[in-house]
Amino acid sequence: MSLFEKLKASMDNEDTPALLALLHDDFVFVRHQSGTTMSKADMAAMMAEMEGATGWSVENQRCIYENDDILVEHSVMTFPDGTREAILGAHTLKDGQIIRMETGATLLS
User: Fold this and answer.
1) What is the largest distance, in Å, between two alpha-carbon atoms of the chain?
2) CA angle, corner 75, sides to 45 and 40, nearest 5?
3) The pLDDT of residue 48
4) What is the enclosing helix (H) or strand (E) of 107?
5) How far is Cα 80 from Cα 65, in angstroms, rounded to an integer?
């Protein structure tokens, strides 16, 4: 199973432990909204808040490109306030895990 398939399955199933297992211990997420960064622990806390919460959804998640060094994906995300964004995620990989994730987004509504 590719890393993208594992990532998609963890998100589809709201399986936070499976998602966190894909993240390297030195993981950094660069947020497109602010340019601020989040660690793996920060991501775990955010995922715990999102898990089971209403208003969040990820649709049309698809792999653009994947090899041993990078995974590029695209999806549409809906947020609790009703806004929707097209998200492009670039995931830098190390040792089969995601070590860095950066996103770019286009507001849809």
Assistant:
1) 38
2) 25
3) 81
4) strand 97-107
5) 29
Contact 74, 64 (CB under 8 A): yes
Cα 3 from Cα 91, distance rounded (Å): 10
pLDDT at residue 25, as a whole number: 97
Residue 19 CB: number of other CB atoms within 10 A? 20
Residue/partner pairs of 14-23 with CB below 8 Å, 24 or more apart: 14/50, 14/51, 14/52, 16/44, 16/47, 16/48, 16/51, 19/47, 20/44, 20/47, 22/97, 22/98, 23/97, 23/98
Q: Please list the ranges in the chain whose pLDDT falls under 50.
A: none
C-alpha 98 chain-centroid distance: 10
Question: Looking at the whole model, is its pTM more than 0.70?
Answer: yes
Please tell me the distance from the alpha carbon of residue 17 to that of residue 14, in angstroms, as a whole number. 9
Of residues 103, 59, 56, the one with CA closest to residue 80: 56
Q: What per-residue confidence (pLDDT) applies to 85? A: 95
